[in-house]
Write a structure and sequence with these properties.
The chain is an alpha/beta fold. It folds into three domains: about 100 residues, no CATH class; about 250 residues, ANL, N-terminal domain (Rossmann fold); about 110 residues, 2-Layer Sandwich (GMP Synthetase, Chain A, domain 3). Helices cover about 25% and strands about 20% of the residues. One of its GO terms (molecular function) is CoA-ligase activity.
């Protein structure tokens, strides 16, 4: 950050301050993706029942259009416009003219558990994105279990380069630094050279990144220019990082450092399983579940699996697990059995090491550059096209490891002359106008006569994946 007497651009960091101010006032915070289209912004505002919005200047006009569509008064949309002395009725500075009062404080456990602090979006195990209600208690426990179990012989300094609206960044970006006194260096967005330069300059000691960041660093020739030897610990999540990349990156770190896989999701307040420092992963395990979390594995008939080395769906309960999604009774019924949350992830526990391994996803989420893409969301947009009668979306491996997976659509045109004219480019443009860039159909569009379904009408996505494998085998190898 810089001030009036410091060189460089006039930049003030407000995001975490705003988050903490909202929570401290007893209100509920939610953040949006700056890459959202108007369609997605409206979905977010309606799902969270947002009443008051603060936007950065570059996004103000787009947010204004969305708020008007959602019948949110224009005076309830303010702008983070810096510390300008010029008065503007839409400036966030107007909030400073309404006096002050003490924080809303409570030390009752039940109040902490039942009071929501933020709404973070998740695709859950199925369906459209849902607003997960994280309580004050969830955030406190997530920090305590993850950050206060092991004394580390180094000063924790992190570089934060992932979006601050994301569930993976809320605890470690907004809560942990002030509670634990950890130093955080915040990047507006990830850029390889800036990341490497800042890591060396500020002697960063810890990382929390997604696999595409690791891969892009390893692929860059700049990795030979800058040193990463200050890094003592790293976690990667959001998608699977191949073991070779994991070992190569760890070799660039401090001799006692390593980057390890972790396991987490929005509904468990971010991290659920990881390696305690200084243990190092050697075979792709996500380590051990945090203390106070109960885990059980169930089969396809929801019967508990009690044997080691036997895969099943993870059900989890404990103090970091949310109570429910906001205003979504259908998703709550499907995702919870009492206080057990169904993760949709298939895993097993090794009998010898007691380490956990994630082997598959029961849910059909597509992981694009660490972002979750829910096929039903893309399918709903495709079905709104006047010339499409049916659509199914799957994730396929990208040619570039940085991307991870890409959405691929199989569509059935409506019968008739107009439907016969439907092209792949038309479909791609239609989606591009309505959804964020990472949700684009960069895995391709295939026009088919019919989609494979069960007798009840449910898509047989495994048949689409088999179809893609056959298609992939016909693609010439370069």
């Amino acid at each position: 950050m810089s001030g009036p007497n410091l060189p460089g651009p006039r930049l003030t960091l407000y995001y975490s301050c705003f988050f903490l101010a909202v929570v401290s006032a007893g209100l509920v915070w939610t953040g949006t993706n700056p890459g959202y289209t108007n369609h997605e912004l409206q979905q977010h505002l309606r799902a969270t029942k947002a009443k008051f919005i603060i936007s950065e200047p570059d996004l103000y006009d787009a947010m204004l259009v969305a708020t008007k569509s959602c019948n949110i008064p224009e005076e309830n949309l303010l702008e983070f416009d810096g510390l300008s002395e010029k008065f503007s009725p839409k400036s966030w500075n107007i909030l400073l003219q309404h006096g002050e009062q003490d924080w809303v404080r409570f030390d009752d456990k039940s109040i902490a558990q039942s009071t929501p602090a933020c709404l973070l979006f998740s695709s859950g195990t199925t369906g459209l994105p849902k607003a997960a209600q994280l309580s004050h208690y969830n955030l406190v426990v997530q920090h305590t279990l993850l950050q206060e179990q092991v004394d580390k012989p180094y000063r924790v300094k992190r570089i934060l380069c992932r979006p601050f609206f994301h569930a993976a960044m809320v605890p470690i970006g907004h809560v942990t630094p002030l509670r634990a006194g950890h130093i955080s260096y915040v990047m507006r967005r990830f850029q390889v050279e800036d990341f490497l330069r800042y890591t060396e300059k500020y002697e960063v000691t810890e990382l929390f990144v997604v696999p595409p960041i690791v891969v892009s660093i390893l692929q860059s020739p700049l990795v030979k220019t800058y040193s990463l030897r200050s890094l003592r610990s790293g976690m990667t999540g959001g998608a699977k990082l191949d073991l070779l990349s994991q070992k190569k990156f760890s070799a660039l770190m401090h001799p006692d450092g390593a980057i390890n896989p972790c396991y987490g999701m929005t509904e468990i307040s971010c991290i659920g399983a990881c390696y305690p420092w200084p243990e190092k992963d050697s075979d792709g395990s996500v380590g051990y579940f945090l203390p106070n979390l109960e885990i059980k594995l169930v089969d396809d008939n929801n019967r508990e699996i009690r044997a080691y080395n036997t895969p099943g769906e993870i059900w989890i309960r404990g103090p970091t697990v949310i109570k429910a999604y906001l205003a979504n009774s259908e998703a709550n019924v499907l995702s919870f059995s009492g206080d057990w949350f169904h993760t949709g992830d298939i895993a097993y526990c090794d009998s010898r090491t007691k380490k956990w391994y994630i082997v598959d996803r029961k849910k059909e989420l597509i992981k694009v550059r660490g972002f979750q893409v829910a096929p039903p969301e893309l399918e709903a947009v495709l079905m709104s096209h006047p010339l499409i009668s049916d659509a199914g979306v799957i994730g396929v491996p990208a040619f570039d490891a940085v991307d991870g997976e890409l959405p691929r659509a199989y569509i059935v045109p409506k019968t008739g002359i107009e439907g016969d004219r439907l092209s792949e480019d038309q479909v791609k443009r239609f989606v591009a106008e309505r959804l964020a860039k990472y949700k684009q159909l960069n895995g391709g569009v295939v026009i088919v006569e019919a989609l494979p379904k069960t007798a009840s009408g449910k898509y047989l996505k495994r048949h689409l994946r088999d179809l893609w494998k056959r298609e992939a085998n016909t693609i010439p190898k370069l």
